[in-house]
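Appendix B, record 7
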Amino acid sequence: MENFLHTTLGATGLRVHRLGLSATYRPGKKAIYSALDAGVNYFFGFGIDTQMISVMRDVFKAKREAYVIATGAYNYVYWHSNIRRALERSLRQLRTDYIDIFLFLGVLKDKEFPLSVRKELYKLREEGKVRYIGLSTHNRALAGTLAAQGAVDVLMIRYNAAHRGAEEEIFPYCKEFNPGVVSYTATRWRALLRRPRRTPKGDRIPDAGMCYRFVLSDPRVHVCMTAPSNMKQLEENLAAVSLGPLPEEDMDFMRRFGDVVHQSKRWFM
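Structure tokens (predicted):
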């Protein structure tokens, strides 16, 4: 990693800004262009993200290879034609010949990522319609196994101050094959931005910037996704990560705060 804000996405060799952008909450086309101006080049989503699709169509006209585009198909469809259909739809929407990273999304159990699905993803990669393939999962044991096997190029995983299991169950297994690691839910669906019931009123509460910096302070995470809902949130997130890694004192605070948040709602694994 050359610096805190830029790195190579594992063995893919793709150069990326470490803050990735999703337009799920429709921040506006102006905000997306602003992210581009700030150097953000990893984008995830599409499908219903009409704002992102419009911007990507525009910027692709000048230099398609400057941007890393990630999308995928959800695991509730297992048959090959639907995986291929989802890819073809993304290609049409974006008016591009290839997708950089195509993920099988939302996998919770081993059986939801069968060999037949993997073979179809490999086939799409061989055809050149997809440069790299991967998986989005909350199942850390599965992610660790796939990383150790070199079965996928990219892993999209949950990692934040309240969910740090990847430090033991995923990251150590990435050493040999070095898959790209993309994290999401840095704020734990905003739970890390609220005061837990057992926390004294005088204690500080993390802001979103601290949550992103916590995640990115671990160099084993290549990209941390952000999904702002407006320009102000985007600018705040970009400004925060430009400050670099959190000091160790703040890292310790985030771990303690994350533990309280995690314990406060045990159903939210």
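Remarks on this record: Residues 6-264 form a domain with the TIM Barrel fold (CATH 3.20.20.100). The beta strands are 6-8, 15-17, 19-22, 42-44, 68-74, 99-107, 130-137, 154-158, 180-184, 223-226.
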